[in-house]
Amino acid sequence: MRTPTLVLQCTDDVIAPVTVGRYVADAVPGATLVMLEATGHCPNLSAPEATVAAVAAFVDP
């Protein structure tokens, strides 16, 4: 069974660079990778509006 999976990746994250987000998205069948123009590892803190918008678009396309 496949579960819809959203991978959010900040474009400037020193803990998990973009390659990590791509790796995770590639490793999960059917995953959707969304790149957020944000800094840091916690986009819910550094870019809350963009995070909410990405999640909302994924949940209710």
Automatic annotation (TrEMBL):
Residues 2-54 form the AB hydrolase-1 domain. This is AB hydrolase-1 domain-containing protein. It comes from Angustibacter aerolatus. Pfam families: Abhydrolase_6 (PF12697). It comes from the Bacteria. Gene3D superfamilies: alpha/beta hydrolase (3.40.50.1820).
